[in-house]
Write the structure tokens for this entry.
Amino acid sequence: MTGRTVSVREGRRLARPLTVGPHLLTADEPEPLSSDTGPTPGELLLAALGSCTSMAVRAYAGRHGWQLDHVVVDLRFGPRGEIVKNIRLTGDLEPDQIRRLLAVAGRCPVQRLITGDVSVVTVPTVVTPRTGTPLPN
């Protein structure tokens, strides 16, 4: 996992500019809630899981010299809020190679993060309008 800080700022309506190192992204909600200038936070989560899955599968196949031509990961939220992850592997692969690649796909770091026991620590900083200085926590 990266050690870079992700910064989220206020934008127009519900749009949120995101900065990750030198990269600029936008999160938003579709109309009528906002302007649909970027993926929703949930879609960004799916994108993180899909890209991590694809990278893990590609790296594993590459380390073993397997003939994986393409890996495509399509994700969506199911009717009960579960994540549905479809993986399409294209290449000259043996059944055991396919089994191992699918196992790797289920162990990518983002999947382990969202399915494990993760705690979130919130560190508040409150700036008062009178002084413009942060209040102690």
User: Anything to note?
Assistant: The helical segments are 41-64, 95-105, 109-115. The longest strand covers residues 67-77.
